[in-house]
Amino acid sequence: MRRALLIGFAALAQVPVAAPAQELKRLFFSPAERLALDAQRRGESPRGEEKVAASIRLDGTVQTARGRATVWVNGRTIVAGKPDPATRIAARVDAPGAASLTLGPSGEWVGIRAGVDLDLASGAQRDLVSGGAVRVRR
């Protein structure tokens, strides 16, 4: 038995060590899409995206236990406390599902809830979910 174990360990010692693992590549995006994603992660605005929106829609908020927060506005991710370079919108989370946004150079904070569309011309807020709730009948 000891002899068999000794021979087994000796055989394993002769096996070459595996080569270091290769870096995984991104599989499902074109090179242009990967460049746009990398630019967005760095907080840069992709080329040609300097359009000014007529309205602002708060899609959602999330805040970690440590206080770091992310806000989604018009489908764009905005890290709370850092103005988005493309839209010049800064955000902070006030409560779960609610945030304050500062729009443009005035620096005035506007409170808005998730699922609400804010018209920039009039300042009117329109709830995208009529009645403020979604009901599912089973």
What brief labels describe this structure?
138 residues; alpha+beta; SH3 type barrels; five-stranded antiparallel β-sheet; elongated
Report on this model:
The protein has 138 residues and is α+β, with helices and mostly antiparallel strands. It has a domain at 53-132: SH3 type barrels (Roll). It is built from 2 helices and 8 strands. The protein has a 5-stranded antiparallel sheet, with no helix packed on it. The chain is elongated. 8% of the residues are buried. The model has no long low-confidence stretch (mean pLDDT 78).
Q: Could you name the CATH class of the domain at 53-132? A: Mainly Beta
Strand content: 25-35%
Which stretches are low in confidence, meaning pLDDT under 50 for 5 or more residues running?
none
The CATH architecture classification of the domain at 53-132 is Roll
Sheet of most strands: 5 strands, antiparallel
Distance between the termini: 66 Å
Q: How are helices and strands ordered from N to C?
A: HHEEEEEEEE
> How many runs of DSSP E, i.e. beta strands?
8
- Counting helices, strands and paired strands, the structural category is alpha+beta
Rg from Cα = 25 Å
Mean pLDDT across residues: 78
Outline: elongated
At the fold tier of CATH, the topology name of the domain at 53-132 is SH3 type barrels
Give the % helix.
10-25%
In the sheet with the most strands, the strands line up as 3-2-1-7-8
Count of helical regions = 2
